Amino acid sequence: MLTYTIKRIVMIPFMLLAIAFFVFIMLHIAAGDPVIAMLPPDWTQLCYDEMAARFGLDQPILVQFYNWIINAVQGDFGLSWRTRAPVINELALRIPVTVQLASITMVIMVLAGIPLGVICAVKQYTVYDAVINFVAKFMGAIPGFWLGLMLIIVFAVNLEWLPTFGMGSWRHWILPVFTLLLPFLANYIRNVRSAMLDCIRQDYVRTARSKGASEGIVIYRDALKNALLPIITITGGILYTLLGGAVVIERVFALPGVGNMIVDAVAVRDTPALVAATMVISLMTILVMLLIDLSYAFVDPRIRSTLIGKSKGKKTPAKAKEVS
């Protein structure tokens, strides 16, 4: 597992390079001319040539990509064709918004989803299980954009309790967080329930009960502890989905995040901004996947002992040679 993780770390630059190249090619073959999109309505051919030369759009696509990579390695992601500002400065302002939105949503989801999933598994086929499952299925079937609009109409327009857009105070985060949270929380509860049911039916749980352990100890020490591996996998998958999938929510609530930046860049084919934002989302996704892999060793003693055993096994032959 350690070797596998190291290989994934080494492959990160190559994966980001492939993603950037893919975005470049897709934007190049898409309909429309980005130079015309940047020009005023009364543009002339001279203005067109000057604008194309200014941003390097008069060169072949492979040359444009090569120049962009060389500059990106040095920390220069170019100028945004839409705002004429450095892309790196815009990303520095937008990344914290997306990370904060995803982090708050994830913390609430874990704190609420694991207890509710455990209750559903322990109280299987009871009223608690039926009610929580019904509410979870109902929330999971609601589209995020529709839920956001309904929350705005009810709590912002009619009741005037909460603001509709911006991020000036903690009250601005309530509607976006809950709009993003509810559909994911519904699936998370059901996945935690399934993971717990698999562990509750195992022999070691019945053995713990037969030894006289209390039900709380059996559930949280034996069943939940062994269900953490699939729960961690589910949590990590939802986290990088939140990081890359908050585009609609940021758009509905006018949050200046990376997702909103991607939508604006796609509208005008802003290649430097779109490629940089896509690479940032991809990098965060890759890092979350690596974090999931590393967390397995901390949660599961079997994986941890395997890593320790391999490291000891590598040192033993060297010591044997020295002794001989």
Care to count the β-strands? 0
Poorly predicted sequence stretches spanning 5 or more consecutive residues: 315-324
Alpha-carbon Rg, integer: 25 Å
The largest β sheet comes out as: none
CATH topology of the largest domain: MetI-like fold
Mean pLDDT across residues? 81
How much strand?
A: under 5%
The tally of domains stands at 2
Q: What is the CATH level 1 assignment of the largest domain?
A: Mainly Alpha
Specify the oligomeric state.
single chain
Rounded to the nearest angstrom, the distance between the terminal CA atoms is: 32 Å
The secondary-structure element order is: HHHHHHHHHHHHHHH
The CATH homology group name of the largest domain: MetI-like
Q: What is the count of DSSP helices, taking H or I runs of 4+ residues?
A: 15
Helix amount, in percent?
over 70%
Overall shape: it is flat
Write the layout of secondary structure elements.
Layout: H1 2-29, H2 34-38, H3 45-54, H4 61-73, H5 87-122, H6 127-140, H7 144-158, H8 171-200, H9 203-210, H10 215-226, H11 228-245, H12 247-252, H13 258-268, H14 271-299, H15 301-323
Helix pairs in contact: 1-14, 5-6, 5-8, 5-11, 5-14, 6-8, 7-8, 8-11, 9-10, 11-14, 13-14, 14-15
Walkthrough of the structure:
By secondary structure, this protein is an all-alpha fold. It has two domains: 2-73, no CATH class; 95-256, MetI-like (MetI-like fold). The chain is built from 15 helices and no strands. The chain has helices spanning 2-29, 34-38, 45-54, 61-73, 87-122, 127-140, 144-158, 171-200, 203-210, 215-226, 228-245, 247-252, 258-268, 271-299, 301-323. Helix 9 runs antiparallel to helix 10. It is flat.
